[in-house]
Design a protein that fits this description.
homodimer; alpha/beta; Arc Repressor Mutant, subunit A; Nucleotidyltransferase, domain 5; 5-stranded mixed beta sheet; 13 helices; 16 strands; globular; binds zinc ion; ROK_cs (chains A, B)
Chain lengths: 417, 417
C-alpha cells in the first residue's frame, strides 16, 4: 500500500492557504492580482475566493477600475469575522495572544512559571487562566474563537494531542490536549515551537512565497523548522526539524539527548553561557542563573566593543555557520531565517558573522541560491505560528460538499473555562 | 511573486508517475487494484490509465473475474512499446544500459576511461560509442528510444544541460548535453548520481510508496538523495543532497571542497582507504591506487574475521552512523537506503554496524520511525535512475490537450550517432 496519497483535495487545501496568505499580506486585492501573485488560474482563484467568502474569513470591499475594462471586485480579510488564539508554553513562562483574522494581536496575557512549577496540571492551569484573560480583554464572544493553537517544547504527537517528551521538564506522554479540553471549549491544535516558528515565517515572514526555506530556531533549545515544496515538512512521525541534535563535533560536549557534540550544546543559550564562563569566568556579562539577562548583556557588550562579548558571538557564529552550511548543502533552500529570542537579541552582529561562516563552509551553487536573514516578524513568532495552526485547522475543516464536512484534527467541546 | 505554483497539472503528472510505478511493480493489474494501492479514486485512476494506454506505455491484457461482479479489465506494461537508455558517467568508466518499458536491461556497454582521459570531448566520445552499441545490440529502431538519461558526478544545471562543477575532473560549466547532442539524436536528460539513485529507489526500490526517504550514496563521493512528500527534493537550484560535505568533525580532515571534517572525507572510498593506511600501513588489504580492489579486500577481510578489516568497517560505520542519525533527526524519514558500490560491497556487516551507530546518536521518536536498509536494486542504480529520468520526461511531455503539447525539458534532433 502506498503511503503517498496526494489528492485534488490536498492540493485544494494548499491552494486555499496560498490565496488566504496572499490576501492577508495585501488587502484589498482583486482576483486578478491574486492569480498573478500565486500562479494559479483565474478560475481556480475565483473558486477559492468564493469558499473564503462563504467561510466569512474574507469580505467584498468594493471595486477598482481596470484600465478600460470592467471594474474589478476587491476582497479583503474580514478582520472581525473570527478570532484565533496562540499559546506559547515555554520553559519559564506561558504567553497567550488573541488575534483577529488579519493576525493582528488584540490581547496578550503572560504567566510566569516559577522553577519547580512544571507539573502538567500546573502548566494547564496557567494556560487556561491566560486564555480566559485574553478572551475577556478582547471582549470576544466565545462563539467567534475559531480555534486555539498550542505550542509546547519537545517531541509532540500532534494527532493524539500528546506531549511525548519535553526534555526540560522530563515530561513523558502527557495528554496535554485532553487536560486542556477540561478548561477550554474551543477546537485545540497541538504542535511545537520549531514548527510554529516555521509556519509563522511561511504565512507572514521571510518564507512567504518561497518553495524551500529553513527556519533556524535559536533559544534555550535549538532546531530547524523546514518549509519544503511550499509547505511545512513534518516527517513521517511529525518529528522533523531536530537539527539541534546534529553532531557538529564528534565526541564533543555531552548533550541532554545522550549524544556528544550536538549543535545545541554550542549555540543554544546554555551553550553560549558555558562558552562565556570558560572564556572569562569572572565576566560581569555572566548572570549564572539567568539566560535572558546573559544574552542581553552579551548584545550590549558587542555594541560597546567588549572583546569578550565579541569573541563569544564570533565563536557562536562559527559553530552556527558550520551547522547552517550543512543545511544549505543538504536542502538547497532559497532562504535561511534566524528566529527566536537568542537570534532576535544578538541581531545584526550575529547575522553578519553567521553569513561569513556559512560562506566558508558551503558549496558555491547552494550558497549562491541561499539568502540568510533575521526573522522579520515583530511579535512572538511562536504565538503567531500557533494561532496559524488554528487558522489552518479552520481552513482544512471546510469542505465544498456540506455532506462530507470534515471534523477538525482536534475539536473539543468540554465545558468552557 | 510566489515561486510556489502547485497546479492541477503538476499533481496530474505526479499521479501519472504513481500509477505507472505501480503497474511496473505489479503487472497485470486492474484499475480497482491500482486505486487501492495508490489511494487515488477509481475515476482518477481510470483517466490516468487511459492516458498511459494512449501513450502506448501500457496495454490491455484481458479480464479477471471479480467475485460475483463484472469481469475487470487488466492492464500491463507494454514492454515493447519503447526503449529507455541510462548513462552512468563515473570517474573511471562509462556504463550505458538500454531498458524496455518494464525497466528490464536489454543491453549493456561499458567503456573504461584511463587516468587523464577526462576531457569533455573524450567522455562524450565514450558515451556516444556506448549508446550506439546498446542500440545495435538490442536491435531497437531509433524511433522507439523514448529518451536518454545521463548521470554525471558533481553539480549539474539540469535545465541548461550543463555540468557546472565535477570535482574529480575539475570540470567547470561544461555544456554536456550540447556536446552529446552532436552525436545522439534522442531526447536527452541530465542529472547527477545522487538524484539518479534516489529516483531509482523511488520508482523501483526501497523508497517506493514511501512519503519520505533518504538514499545515502556511498562511493568515491558521498551524498544523500532526498525523497520528500513522495517526490524527489531538488532544492531551489537543483543542488540538494550534498550531504557528503556536512561537517562531522569540526576542524577535521581537509576536504576537496575546501571545508574541514566533511562526512565524505571519512566514509567515501578514499577516506576509508586513508583510515586503513593510518591503521595498518603494511596491510595486504591495501591497494594504494585502486579503490575498488581495496574495498573488495576489506569485504573479504571482514568475512574472514581479519581484525584490521573489522576495525576499519566498524570505524567507518561509526562516522556514517553519526551522519545518518543527523538525517534521521532532521528529516524524520520512513526509510534510509544505503546505495552505490561501497555499500553494496561491504553489505550486511556494514549495515549491522551502521544500525547500531544510528541508534546511539538518534532521538527516539524519529529513530523508531526509520528503517535502515541496503538498496534492493540488483543492477546499476545510476543507469536505472538515469533511464527513469528519461521515462519521467516522456510522461511529463504528454498533455491531454494536444494543442498545448509540451516539449521535453531537453529535446534534441541533431544527427544520429
Ligand atoms: Zn543532543
Ligand atoms: Zn567537503
Amino acid at each position: 500500500m502506498s503511503s503517498v496519497k496526494r489528492t485534488s483535495r490536498d492540493i485544494r487545501t494548499a491552494n486555499r492557504y496560498e490565496v488566504l496568505r496572499q490576501i492577508i499580506a495585501e488587502s484589498p486585492t482583486s482576483r486578478q492580482e491574486l492569480a498573478a501573485a500565486t500562479g494559479l488560474s483565474l478560475a481556480t482563484v475565483a473558486t477559492l475566493v468564493g469558499e473564503l467568502l462563504d467561510l466569512r474569513l474574507i469580505t467584498e470591499v468594493g471595486f477598482e477600475d481596470s484600465a478600460g475594462g470592467r471594474p474589478r471586485g476587491l476582497v479583503a480579510v474580514n478582520t472581525t469575522g473570527g478570532a484565533l488564539i496562540g499559546v506559547d508554553i515555554a520553559e519559564t513562562y506561558v504567553r497567550v495572544e488573541l488575534f483577529d483574522l488579519a493576525l493582528n494581536v488584540l490581547a496578550r496575557a503572560d504567566e510566569d512559571m516559577r522553577p519547580g512549577e512544571s507539573r502538567p496540571e500546573q502548566v494547564v492551569g496557567h494556560v487556561a487562566a491566560a486564555v480566559g484573560s485574553v478572551v475577556t480583554q478582547a471582549g470576544v464572544e466565545g462563539a467567534r474563537v475559531l480555534g486555539v493553537g498550542v505550542s509546547v517544547p519537545g517531541q509532540v504527537d500532534r494527532e493524539g494531542g500528546v506531549s511525548e517528551y519535553a526534555p526540560n521538564w522530563d515530561w513523558h506522554d502527557v495528554p496535554l490536549l485532553d487536560l486542556l479540553a477540561e478548561h477550554i471549549a474551543y477546537p485545540l491544535y497541538l504542535d511545537n515551537p520549531l514548527r510554529a516558528c516555521a509556519v509563522a515565517e511561511l504565512w507572514f515572514g521571510a518564507a512567504r512565497g518561497r518553495g524551500d526555506a529553513v527556519v533556524v530556531n535559536l533559544g534555550t533549545g535549538v532546531g530547524a523548522g523546514l518549509v519544503l515544496g511550499g509547505g511545512l515538512h513534518r516527517g513521517v512521525s511529525n518529528s522533523a526539524g531536530e537539527w539541534g541534535h546534529t553532531t557538529l563535533v564528534l565526541d564533543g560536549r555531552l548533550c541532554h539527548c545522550g549524544n556528544h557534540g550536538c549543535v545545541e550544546t554550542y549555540v543554544g543559550a546554555p551553550g553560549i553561557m558555558l562558552h562565556l564562563r570558560e572564556l572569562a569566568p569572572q565576566s560581569t556579562l555572566l548572570h549564572p542563573e539567568d539566560q535572558t539577562a546573559t544574552i542581553d548583556a552579551l548584545a550590549r557588550g558587542v555594541a560597546d566593543g567588549d572583546p569578550v562579548a565579541l569573541k563569544v558571538v564570533r565563536d557562536t557564529a562559527r559553530y552556527l555557520g558550520a551547522g547552517i552550511a550543512d543545511l544549505v548543502n543538504l536542502l538547497n533552500p532559497e532562504v535561511v531565517v534566524l528566529s527566536s529570542w537568542v537570534a532576535a537579541t544578538l541581531g545584526e552582529p550575529l547575522l553578519a558573522e553567521v553569513r561569513q561562516a556559512v560562506a566558508r563552509h558551503s558549496l558555491r551553487r547552494p550558497l549562491d541560491a541561499a539568502e540568510i536573514v533575521l526573522s522579520p516578524i515583530p511579535t512572538d513568532p511562536v504565538c503567531l505560528g500557533a494561532a496559524t495552526f488554528a487558522l489552518e485547522g479552520a481552513l482544512s475543516s471546510f469542505s465544498q460538499r456540506p455532506a462530507r464536512r470534515a471534523v477538525p484534527a482536534r475539536s473539543r467541546t468540554a465545558s468552557a473555562s
